[in-house]
Amino acid sequence: MDSKMLARLGAVIFVAVAITAAVVEMTRKDDAPAGPSARIIEPARDPLREGQRRCQQLGQQAASDAECLRVWAETRDRSLGRPIAPVSPSSSDRR
After folding, report:
1. Cα–Cα distances in Å, from 20 out to 11, 14, 31, 93?
2. Minimal CA–CA distance to 95: which of 59, 70, 62?
């Protein structure tokens, strides 16, 4: 056998192996995950997040809403890493 013949035979074998591997990979079935073993984790209820959504729905009126001003101040403090000082309900009623 000459070198051209060996090169062609090697190329044919390589292509055959590549096609076989592709067919095997395409026909392989993945195991389905076992039903309800994966639990859906509900996020903890966050009153601040609920307040933010309420203020978002108020739109322009939120700028004059005392509760929205409190929510925004708490959001700002939380994002800046400042300690959150609880606001007593009586202090917001004095306005």
Report:
1. 14, 10, 21, 77
2. 70
* Cβ(70)–Cβ(91) below 8 Å: no
Which alpha helices (H) appear in the chain, and where do they start and end? 3-27, 47-58, 66-80, 89-93
Q: CA 52, CA 58: separation in Å to the nearest integer? A: 10
CA distance 90 to 95: 10
Model pLDDT for residues 37-76, shown as the tens digit of each residue? 667 777 788 888 899 999 999 999 999 999 999 999 999 9
Query: 52 with 71: CB under 8 angstroms?
Result: yes
